[in-house]
Amino acid sequence: MKKVLIVLASLFVLTGCGVLDLLEEQEPAEGRELVTIERVVDGDTVIVHLEDGTRERVRLLLIDTPESVKPDTEVQPFGEEASDFAKEFMQEGETVELERGNPERDDYDRLLAYIWVDGENVNQLLVEEGYARVAFVYEPNTKYLSELEETQEEAKENEENIWSIPGYAESRFYEY
């Protein structure tokens, strides 16, 4: 037992800075909270567990992705790709940062939020890659609207994914 403690103490001394850095990384940025990803439902909806253990369905603010799992709706172009991209960034069991909207809930009682992974806004990444369009803009939930709109313009210019089909994103994904 004594040898184990000596080895652990040595490892702590050798990696002390790294351990402290790891602990600091678990502190959320101001206005955010840590949540654990249960699963990604589709490109713009995820289920998380809050720190108190509460399970919440989260709708990503200010974006809309093509449907991939909506009942009685065909899978829309780029719907599966949007979902896969979201799953890549929000992996099951991963701890991420969640920034709640104001108001916090939509008409379906989903928690409205931005999700941050390693300091990156997942909502914005989906727009940047052309898997989401800016949508459902309701005051006062517009904190990152200008950044998202700028990102969307770049995705449009580059004809990224949903923007590669003329008129598709503007149709709310229903005419294709």
Describe the protein's architecture and organization.
- The chain has 4 helices and 8 strands, in the order αββββαβββαβα.
- The chain has a single domain (30-171), classed as OB fold (Dihydrolipoamide Acetyltransferase, E2P) (Beta Barrel).
- It is α+β, with helices and mostly antiparallel strands and 176 residues long.
- The N and C termini lie far apart (67 Å).
- The protein has helices spanning 2-25, 79-89, 122-128, 145-157; strands at residues 33-42, 45-49, 55-60, 63-64, 95-105, 111-117, 120-121, 133-134.
Strand order of the largest sheet: 1-2-3-6-5
Summarize the amount of helix as a percent range: 25-40%
Helix/strand order, N-terminal first: HEEEEHEEEHEH
- Mass-distribution shape: globular
The first-to-last residue Cα distance is 67 Å
Any idea what the radius of gyration is? 19 Å
pLDDT averaged residue by residue? 88
What is the name of the CATH topology? OB fold (Dihydrolipoamide Acetyltransferase, E2P)
Tell me the strand percentage band: 25-35%
Q: Count up the domains.
A: 1
- The total count of strands amounts to 8
Largest β-sheet summary: 5 strands, mixed, barrel
Structural class: alpha+beta
Q: Uncertain regions: pLDDT < 50 for 5+ in a row?
A: 3-24
CATH classification class: Mainly Beta
Looking at the overall shape, the CATH architecture is Beta Barrel
Task: Give the helix tally.
Answer: 4
